Amino acid sequence: MNKTTTLILSLLLIGLYGNAQNEDIVNRSLEKFEKRNDSIFTSHRGPSVESFTKQYIIDRQGYEKYLGNVIDKNLAKGLTYDIRENVFYDNIEDADDTTSDEYALSQLDYFSIPIKLKNGDSVVVDFGRTKDFTSSYQKVKKIVITSLNEILNEANKELLKDSIPPIKRIYISASSNGKHSKNSNHYRKEALDISRINGQMIAYHHFSFRIKEKLKIHMDKLNYNDYKNKYFLLIEEMPYNLDEIFLWNRLEKLQKAILNHKFTRENYGPLLNTKYDKKTKKLTEYDYVIPGHHNHIHFSVR
Predict the structure, then answer these.
(1) Could you tell me if 64 and 245 are in contact, meaning their C-beta atoms sit under 8 angstroms apart?
(2) Is 198 inside a domain boundary?
(3) How many CB atoms are located within 10 Å of the residue 231 CB?
(4) Which structural domain, as residue segments, surrounds residue 228?
(5) At 96, phi and psi to the nearest 5?
């Protein structure tokens, strides 16, 4: 066996090992997420009712109380909360990063809106404003832009495999704007915070998961063509927002696509919380939700 063949085989084995490791991380995270979901709705359980609409209202009210408690706990930890955007600012230091604070202008660019995907679809990007009224539409490193494009391509491909309408819109609540820790990747123009998918606040991912489970009997009767161009599903003659129902699935596919991307450094959110360590060249998996990240995904590159 020559050196070239040996190298190729080694790279393939590394890739297979990496994919297997990532699948293990996702499976463990899903298991913990489902237990957390059961705990949320058990602790806020209301009276059992036959009407889906009444149960929806009870669950929604219970979940709002849960979110209020989560916000209070994170505020007690000293995190900065933006009530208008319904997000916490990241307070994450990247102590093992050695990136220079100087940026060549050629490295930076604005997002082209909308983002054009390989299959011809487009994803609209909305930009928020942080407490200082600075827009998140800022120049970032070009690798952030190309990486997000590839991640959205992958997430939508996986959603369509599951017959779920794709991501058509995302909301970036922060890029290099906002208040972050001193060594944050936001200030290096290497990070983004995504807080909404198709208009739905990521904070409601647990509620979305709950709705989807409750609607299983109705959804199993449908196929992709029944809702691919619709925004609402009629249940008991009441309309329910499909973007709310599918929020959980889109969050899951998006964080998984971020995890699998070759240039991902940090992937913190409601489901996955991983970081690529530049020193050890290994992936660190946190077994808890990073404080403040129940309501957005923090994505950075390396």
Answers:
(1) no
(2) yes
(3) 12
(4) 18-96+111-301
(5) -95, 10
Angle value at C-alpha 193, between 191 and 194, nearest 5 degrees: 135
In a domain? residue 2: no
The per-residue pLDDT for range 30-82, each reduced to its tens digit, is 999 999 999 998 876 656 667 888 889 999 999 999 999 999 999 999 888 98
Nearest alpha carbon to residue 121 among 157, 95, 87:
157
* Pairing label, strands 238-241, 264-268: unpaired
The model carries a pTM of: 0.88
Cα–Cα distance between 253 and 255 in angstroms, integer?
6
CA dist 210 and 215 (Å) reads 9
| Residue 162 CB contacts under 8 Å (≥ 6 apart), including other chains | 249
Q: Please tell me the total count of domains within the chain.
A: 1
Per-residue buried b or exposed e for 84-118, using 16+ beta carbons within 10 Å of the residue's own CB: ebbbbbbbbebeebeeeeeeeeeebeebeeebebe
User: Alpha helix (H) ranges present in the chain?
Assistant: 3-43, 52-76, 142-161, 205-214, 216-219, 224-227, 242-245, 247-260
Of the CA atoms within 13 Å of residue 248, those in its CB half-sphere come to 14
Calpha distance 92→291 (Å, rounded):
10
257 within a domain of the structure (yes/no): yes
Q: Rounded to a whole number, what is the largest CA-CA distance in the chain?
A: 70
Cα separation, 103 vs 70, whole angstroms: 37
- Residue 234, SS3 per DSSP: strand
pLDDT (tens digit, 9 = 90+) per residue, 225-241?
888 889 998 888 889 99
Residue 138's nearest CA partner among 156, 151, 125, 147 is 125
Whether residue 8 lies inside any domain: the answer is no
Rounded Cα distance, 155 and 286, in Å? 22
Report how far residue 1's alpha carbon sits from residue 179's, in angstroms, rounded to the nearest whole number. 55
